[in-house]
């Protein structure tokens, strides 16, 4: 063994002899999930020594990913000990070389170890099997194996920037559980606009602060032990002032995460917001309130956008009627000819950014550009949205304030489309925007062009102007009448994002209270002006403040 590896083993032995509870993380395939594994094992088992054995191919990614959790782990008094800081990765390309190396390491610590946890979440099948063989041969019953539920997609925020309910811990063997409690002992005091990803991270940390640990399943001596009591996380929206009315927006099982009930509540949440706004706004124009607020359903991603009608000289587009927009975009990522997607102004109010997010998740890398897809933002659409923000007084009350908030959110969705999906500008400047789009879009270099609008009048105008022919197809966009699917971990992940954005957006209109098994917090809009607006303040509610 090299001098560097001897030093690594010596340090490892010294930490074990000092009373640290060790875990071995074997990482050769999914380096970005390393912080999630560390955070969850620290919470559920009380691990305070994380020994990371890496392949040379993942060292840089592991090193970068650990920055997300290093401070939280150190606050618990835990230590992270990667092999690469001693000069060499111990996981080799050849599985037998790996087996010999691991045998050597485990043999040298065998006498000091009483119990050791070996996690296989970040390794592929061959290395995982090699690790199990080596551990069982050298350490025997001293070893316990774990797997942490993760979604192996690059770009998913690491825990605690993702809800605990997505990261169940499975334990195979008789673990020595020394719970130290949640690594999330704080929550964001202010949530600024940082795109849907930033909101998801901030609200996830709040969720994890307000809920308990205990999402762990064990298997030992042919017996299976399931998680304990499943509490519910609830969110309520309430009126301002003396009315004292409130409505439940959302309910999520703390251990299971979003289910079909959550999905149904997400789908109908805009109605609760509209009802309370109607009580709050003096002019009592319920139809106008509904017309503005119902867009929240699509904006937060609670309902999938679908193609309701299409117009094209190519028959294939008529087969897409009734199909979800993100699936059409996703299918186009694998086709030979590039697709240009050109949205009308209303799509930025209606959740185009969530369509692109869902397509990017299915592509395998959330919040990233889509292969073979070009998104174009008409300059007239950007001008129209920005003009609405500029001309409306955010300090006004009533419908004017509601209208301003929706325009500001549309602006933020437009910016997200640029930032995450590399949207370009279409030089369509004149109003009405749909007419300008009809002139400029056919000149785009892509072989296929899709004009989309949620305004049937604009869709009809495109057909009348004879633009929906040749390489240009036009689509009238509606929304699905079915709530989100939450049957898979990917579905629960997306529903978790939609839930996070719903709470953020709802709090811009009226106060939102979120209550879990470990606490309660209130979200209230703080600022609707400035580059980081909207800003939502988060206030932890003490027992003496509860009604």
UniProtKB/TrEMBL annotation:
Protein name stated in the entry: Uncharacterized protein
Organism: Staphylothermus marinus (strain ATCC 43588 / DSM 3639 / JCM 9404 / F1)
